[in-house]
From TrEMBL:
Pfam families according to UniProt: DUF498
SUPFAM superfamilies hit by this protein: MTH938-like
Gene3D superfamilies to which the protein is assigned, alphabetical: MTH938-like
InterPro entries attached to this UniProt entry: MTH938-like_sf (IPR036748), NDUFAF3/AAMDC (IPR007523)
PANTHER family: NADH DEHYDROGENASE [UBIQUINONE] 1 ALPHA SUBCOMPLEX ASSEMBLY FACTOR 3 (PTHR21192:SF2), NUCLEAR PROTEIN E3-3 (PTHR21192)
CDD domains: Mth938-like (cd00248)
Name listed for the protein in its UniProt record: NADH dehydrogenase [ubiquinone] 1 alpha subcomplex assembly factor 3
Length: 128
């Protein structure tokens, strides 16, 4: 029996700086990903969010499962800054995680600096 193409969740199993962003995606670890990404202690994941997607706490479930290893969450909200939902901010505060929404470009730059400093940082980055 022939098997079709298997579509798997996009995942890079490690931490890596973001080498480039724009044109609807990101480049890291000599690879490229089209679309938004989550950069977590467990790796970099594809994230099904666009600049038009309402930011809801449920979109951050994967982040909340790793809060024991995260002190800072940078949220790149696209070209413009959008506020984080109140229930997400409350959940992050309860887990002792500082969160900061900013443009995606600023979040990428800040993430790279904090990662280079070996800080406990994660990023949720909306593709631009």
């Amino acid at each position: 029996m022939a098997r079709g193409i298997e579509i798997r969740e996009a995942h890079f199993p490690g931490r890596a700086p973001i080498e480039a962003y724009g044109n609807g995606g990101f480049r890291f670890a000599d690879m490229s990903h089209r679309g938004s990404i989550l950069c977590l202690p467990s790796g970099i994941y594809g994230w099904d969010v666009t600049g038009d997607t309402p930011l809801e706490a449920s979109l951050f479930d994967k982040v909340l499962r790793e809060t024991g290893e995260i002190e800072f969450l940078l949220v790149g909200t696209g070209l413009s800054i959008r506020p984080l939902p109140g229930d997400l901010r409350t959940a992050l505060r309860a887990a002792h995680v500082s969160s900061d929404p900013m443009s995606t470009g600023a979040a990428v730059r800040t993430y790279n600096v904090m990662l280079a400093e070996s800080r406990a940082v994660a990023a949720a980055l909306v593709a631009v």
